[in-house]
Write a structure and sequence with these properties.
single chain; mainly alpha
């Protein structure tokens, strides 16, 4: 997919999120994960490679954070948290959707499974 097509996809998803979340007035630190999950669901509807989908989610969430009606200090703190957590969160959600975690054995996710999926960041 070309850069222009990726940017058009970002714009389209950003627009849908704006409609869903009251032109972003309904988003704050307490529900930003809901925005991330909804962004992932929307991106999944496109015929794109995994890395392209991840990149689009990252860009869309960054754009959402830019327009949030929050004080600059709170917005900056939220941005840092999202930048640190989002790439691994995406990987964990995808792994869970693909049943990478072995929940059938004992009903729990082991530390080793989390480490494997999260590239050893823990």
């Amino acid at each position: 997919m070309s850069t222009i097509e990726l940017l058009n996809t970002v714009d389209a998803i950003f627009g849908v999120l704006g409609e869903m979340f009251g032109n972003f007035r309904k988003i704050d630190g307490s529900n930003v994960v809901s925005v991330i999950v909804k962004t992932m669901e929307l991106v999944n509807g496109y015929d794109l490679s995994g890395p392209d989908k991840k990149d689009i989610v990252m860009v869309v969430v960054e754009r959402v954070l830019e327009v949030l009606p929050m004080e600059s200090e709170a917005k900056a703190a939220l941005r840092v948290a999202v930048r640190l957590i989002l790439p691994n969160l995406i990987d964990v959600v995808i792994s869970a959707a693909r049943h990478v975690f072995d929940l059938d054995k004992d009903g729990h996710i082991s530390k080793d499974e989390v480490k494997e999926v999260c590239c050893g960041c823990f």
